[in-house]
Each structure stands twice: as C-alpha cells, then as structure tokens.
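Dear Dr. H.,

I hope your travels went smoothly. While you were away I took the liberty of generating a structure for the chain from your last submission, since the lab meeting agenda had it listed for discussion. I wanted you to have the full record in hand beforehand rather than looking at slides cold. The sequence, exactly as received, is reproduced here:
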Amino acid sequence: MQHDHYLPGAEEVPLQASEKDDRRPTADASHAKTQAEALQAQYDARLKAANAEGDRIIQNATRQAQEREEAIVHEAQEKAARTMERAHAQVEREKKQAMNDLKDQVSGMAIGIASAVLEEDVDKRKHAKLIDSFIENLGEPL
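The corresponding predicted structure, in token form, is as follows:
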C-alpha cells in the first residue's frame, strides 16, 4: 500500500490525523482567498453598476434641464411675440384714430371756408385769399 507521502527508508505509515489537520489551514486559506476574490468581484460589479446608474441619472437630469431651458426660452419668445403684436395693433389703432381726427378737422375747416365763401359776395381775389389763409392755418390747432 503506497501513500501520497512516502519517505524512502521509512516504514510506510498512514498519515495521522494531526498531519491531515496540518493541510487544513492551507485549504481554508485557499477557500477564504477564493471567497474574498468572489466578494471583490461582486463589489466591483456593484460599484460599476452604481457608477453607471449615477451617470444615467446625471445624463437624465441634464437632458431634463436642457428641455426645461428650451421650453422657458420658447415660452419667453412667444410672450415677446404676443407683446409685439399687441403693441403694433395699438399703434395701428392710434394711427387710425389720428387720421380720423385729422379728417374731422379738415372737414370742419372746409365747411367753415365754404360757409365763409357763401356768406360773402366774393370776387375771385378774395376767394383766393380765403383759400390761402385756410392753407396757412392747416398746421395750427383748432
């Protein structure tokens, strides 16, 4: 019968229990090392996953911030456009009102001149003077 540990010149003696126990710490250390390496691999994988999740969260937050920024800018541009439209409409209303006021004034003056011409028995020179006077007074307030 031959055993794994055979010393030449010595009797073959089966390994004692204490000799078997001497090999146990090495096996335990090897097993512990294997477990530690497995735990390290799990830790590394979880750390990598956590970093990836962190990157994803940051990218998502950045994207949402950019979308919000674009929405705010778009909303501000629309508001500015509406304000400009209202301002242009107000200017047009005021312009029309000024033109109507001017027409009313000119009509009143024309009627006044016509009345003055009709009231007087006017010759052509006097009539021309009235018209020239009317034209000179066009720029003056009524």
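Two observations you may find useful: Helices lie at 17-119, 124-136. The chain has a mean pLDDT of 81.

With kind regards,
E. W.
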